[in-house]
Design brief:
Layout: E1 2-4, H1 12-15, H2 18-28, E2 31-35, E3 41-45, H3 48-56, E4 61-62, H4 79-85, H5 96-107, H6 110-115, H7 117-132, E5 138-140, H8 141-146, H9 148-158, H10 165-176, H11 192-215, H12 221-227, E6 229-230, E7 233-234, H13 237-251, H14 253-268, H15 270-278, H16 283-294, E8 303-305, E9 309-311, E10 314-316, E11 321-324, H17 326-329, H18 365-382, E12 387-388, E13 410-412
Parallel strand pairs: 1-2, 3-11
Antiparallel strand pairs: 2-3, 4-8, 5-13, 6-7, 8-11, 9-10, 12-13
């Protein structure tokens, strides 16, 4: 076991060498004791099998902190954030989690996602049209493509009117900034009080939208969740609200960073870029390989030991917090041959941990795959001269551990 109270895991600078850091931890043991920015001591799991064990054993490890021993304080959560994320599906254990997920899946079906494919393609084509219309043929691909693609898809999916898209983007950025693994300042220079006020406005807006959709449902996902029924049960307004917040947190920043990470990975591996250009049918496997190689979700939601137990040979006390480092598990050499090499033809790439594992595996994984495949194939086919406009050594990473992604990616085409 490695114990460290001074290991930098969250700064933007540390993100550039994160895989090396995880490999160093894992070479000593697949479990390490570290101190997080919140001051809490946490067990980090950097091994693949150990991460899977943590994420799938709901008897020994809970997502709720109700098992924390008396006297151990958890960080305070603002009321607005608690209303959105407290008791959400991501923070529930089976059987409560099972009930909510069954209801959500009744609306968010594979058939529903597949029906979105032409919508995603049309949005992607419009964004590329805009890129091609620029006379300078250079742009920040994150700001002009990777951000608006999932934002527009999500807005359409939830039934957010076009007139409210700018506000929705701000709200989504604020929700994504609620990262407990980093000490980032509020976006846009906003004070914490301003942030909470905007989140309160988001809550009020979605509350009103849910009521409107119940009264006059459409083809959007909020209508679907409001009307979904399983075993005679329906989601309450509060559950739909929390699910919308979870979709925003889990479906925007993740896909935005995935697109940026994939393009960066291809720039750094020109042989793989040339291969995908020549064989676009490899896109599906390429997305899974890049979810393994450069996934956008770095760590799991925390788990808490429900009892004194042993994991990876270490004694874990009841109530202690554990986190699976998904990015590290997906590069575990005990699971993947030559894990630090990008290979878009890799057999078994889909066994990555990029979407988590177990009952809490990412609900939006099918949609993220569709968006990733369409984004890659459209960019490479319509922008045949796509190339980096800066040295790849100068790319800046987002601070914090929850999401992994570049803050900007200047390109020319």
């Amino acid at each position: 076991m490695t114990t460290s109270e001074h290991l930098d895991l969250i700064s933007a600078e540390s993100r550039a060498t994160a895989y090396e850091t995880y490999a160093g931890l894992r070479s000593d043991a697949p479990i390490s004791r570290v101190k997080m920015p919140t001051g809490q001591d946490v067990w980090l799991l950097t091994g693949y099998e150990e991460g899977v064990e943590l994420l799938t054993d709901y008897n020994r490890f809970k997502t709720t902190a109700t098992v924390v021993p008396e006297g151990v304080e958890m960080p305070a959560v603002p009321d607005a954030v608690l209303r959105l994320l407290g008791g959400s599906m991501a923070a529930l254990d089976p059987p409560d989690h099972t009930r909510q997920r069954r209801l959500v899946q009744a609306a968010f079906t594979p058939q529903y996602v597949e029906k979105l494919r032409p919508v995603v393609q049309a949005i992607t084509d419009r964004l590329v049209d805009d890129l091609l219309a620029r006379p300078d043929r250079s742009v920040d691909l994150v700001e002009e493509f990777a951000v608006p693609l999932p934002l527009t898809v999500m807005s359409n999916m939830l039934g957010i009117p076009p007139t409210d898209r700018d506000r929705f983007r701000l709200w989504s950025e604020l929700l994504l900034g609620l990262d407990p693994t980093s000490a980032q300042s509020a976006p846009n220079g906003m004070s914490p009080m301003d942030v909470m006020a905007e989140i309160e406005r988001f809550v009020g807006y979605i509350d009103a939208l849910i009521k409107a959709k119940r009264a006059d449902p459409g083809e959007d996902l909020i209508s679907g969740m409001a009307l979904a029924e399983a075993d005679g049960e329906r989601m309450t307004d509060d559950e739909v609200l929390k699910m919308v917040a979870l979709l925003v947190v889990g479906g925007l920043g993740t896909t935005q960073h995935l697109i940026g990470n994939m393009v960066l990975a291809l720039f750094r591996n020109p042989d793989q870029l040339a291969l995908l250009r020549a064989q676009p049918e490899l896109a599906a496997n390429a997305v899974d390989e890049m979810l393994r190689y450069h996934g956008s979700i770095e760590i799991s939601f925390p788990r808490f030991a429900a009892e004194d137990t042993v994991l990876a040979g270490e004694s874990i006390a009841k109530g202690e917090m554990l986190i699976a480092v998904l990015a590290a598990g997906s590069r575990d050499p005990r699971k993947f041959t030559d894990p630090d090499r990008l290979d878009i033809r890799r057999h078994g790439a889909s066994r990555h941990l990029g979407f988590g594992r177990g009952a809490h595996m990412c609900l939006g994984a099918p949609l993220a795959r569709v968006e990733g495949q369409i984004a890659l194939n459209t960019l490479l086919s319509r922008l045949p001269e796509l190339r980096p406009a800066i040295s790849l050594d100068d790319v800046t990473w987002r601070a914090g551990m929850t999401l992994r992604g570049v803050t900007a990616l200047p390109v020319a085409y």
